[in-house]
Amino acid sequence: MIIQLCGLSGAGKTTIATNVKQKAAAFGTPIEIIDGDNYREFLCKDLGFSKEDRCENIRRLGFVASRLSCHGVICIISAINPYDAVRNELTAAYEHVRTVYIDCPVNELIARDTKGLYKRALLPEGHPDRLTNLTGINDPFEAPRNPDLHLRTDKKSISTCVNELFGFIITSAARKNNSSLRVASV
Ligand SMILES: Nc1ncnc2c1ncn2[C@@H]1O[C@H](COP(=O)(O)OS(=O)(=O)O)[C@@H](OP(=O)(O)O)[C@H]1O
Ligand SMILES: Nc1ncnc2c1ncn2[C@@H]1O[C@H](COP(=O)(O)OP(=O)(O)O)[C@@H](O)[C@H]1O
Fold first, then answer.
1. Is 2-154 in CATH node 3.40.50.300?
2. Which of 45, 172, 178, 179 matches a 20 to 30 Å C-alpha distance to 54?
3. Does the model's ipTM exceed the 0.90 cut?
4. Where is the APS kinase domain positioned along the sequence (predicted)?
C-alpha cells in the first residue's frame, strides 16, 4: 500500500508520518517514509521547484514506493505533492494508492514557520533573500477534492492526527488483504 500525503510546508507531514511509523513499528508493521526533503538530497538532487520538476519528483518517489510496496512494505510518500494530475497519475499507475491531505491554513503556517521559508517568501519584491516559488504563497497548491483522508492540523492535536492516520492505514490494509484473499479463493 502507498499513502501519498500532500500538504504545504509545515503542515505536519513529517511529524505525522514519523509518529505513525513509530506506532506501527511497535505493532511489528514496518513502514517506509519516502520524504521529499530527504530524497531531494540524493535521488532527486537535480530537481528544483518548477511544476515540471515537482511532478518529476513525485513520479520518482512514487516509483520507489511501488518497488517497496510490491514486497508488502507500507510506504508513506511525504511531500508537498501539489498537483492533481501527478497525484492521479500515481493512483492510476500503482495498486492500493491512498491520498491523504495534511491540511493547515496558510496563516497558521506563517505563524509556525519552522524553517523560516514563509518569512522569506513574504519579503518585498526585489529583496535578495525573497523566495519566489513557495507553495501556498507564490506557487500553486491544488487541494485534493476527494482525498481518502483529510486531516486539519490546526484543529486536531498531533496525537489525534497520528491516531487517525494510523487507524486509516490499518483499516485500508485489512480491506486490501481481504480483497486479495477473495481474489485468491476464486
Ligand atoms: N520554493 C519552495 N517551495 C516548497 N518547498 C520548498 C521550497 N524551497 C525549499 N523547499 C523545501 O523543500 C521541501 C519540499 O520538497 P517536496 O519534494 O516535498 O516538494 S514537491 O512535492 O516536489 O512540491 C519543503 O519541505 P517541507 O517543509 O517538509 O514540506 C521545504 O523544506
Ligand atoms: N496536529 C498537528 N500535526 C502535525 N504537526 C503539528 C500539529 N500541530 C502542530 N504541529 C507542528 O507543526 C510543525 C509541522 O512541521 P513538519 O512536520 O516538519 O511539517 P511538514 O513536513 O509538512 O513540512 C511541527 O513543528 C509540529 O510540531
1. yes
2. 172
3. yes
4. 2-151
